[in-house]
Amino acid sequence: MKFEKEKHQILLDKAIQYGYKAIEPYTVKEHDNVIGLLVKYHDQNTDNGTYYLEIQKDNTVQLRVDSPNTIANFEKTQKIIDEIKLALDKTDIKKLNTYDFVTLYATLIQDTVILPLAQQLYPENLKKQHIYKEQYMNVFLNDVLNYHLAEDSKQINEITINGKPYWFKQLIEEQYSDIVKKLEDDYEKRIKNNKKTSN
User: Which residues contact 146 (CB under 8 A, 6 or more apart)?
Assistant: First the structure.
């Protein structure tokens, strides 16, 4: 099947939105009456597989494996978990209360996940970095909760979660002026409330 820009542009847009890149020359293929675009993940150091990105009839995005990812992320993730546990065991962690743990993990998530993402997506725009940090934390924590509640890891859509940072960036771009106005209004309200409290 030949790639047609007018017909398949939406697949290109969705690839970018979910953090993937179309492989050139563009290749499209039909599976079960659904057309897919051949793509690869933007970071080949974490996922070197190739996939056909498809938009299903219910508008959900699905990746059909063409060439599987050979990078063993599970072992790498488990190694990091073990190292973090070992480091915490060497501290006075037993003396911390529940609020201390909230502070600890909120700071770790902010500094190791949210901030690097914001800097990567907006390397030269500090205002958008700030907006991203403020807004995306809720999205990430919701994914953490869903992962915790899932009875089976297969209930968690890895592709969707990996694509959310890029989808959220697009959302910020589309609603930027409204988001900035809301933040400015909230800031003004806080100032007024602080003045009332001080008086």
Answer: 156
